[in-house]
Amino acid sequence: MSFSERQKRRRQNAFGATSPPFIDYLKDILRRYPDGGQILKELIQNADDAGATEVVFIHDDRAYGTQALWAEDLEKYQGIVLAKMVL
């Protein structure tokens, strides 16, 4: 079985639906930034300047409730996130 076949099978859920590859999620996130994703380049450059040996981006597509927030303006932060860890 080829790599692409394994990837396709991995993305398929129990109902036969498939999810887009991670790169599609990343492209969508970058499209939403007004500068075309310059922020990611800056994050990587900052990690390099700090002497990092590894930069990890984590995509979390979970959405969280908004009923118990401390302030209403925090609601916009309850959706999909792309987080960065520097090691």
UniProtKB/TrEMBL annotation:
This is Sacsin/Nov domain-containing protein. Coiled coil: none annotated. It holds the Pfam family SACS. It comes from Anguilla anguilla (European freshwater eel). Residues 21-82 form the Sacsin/Nov domain.
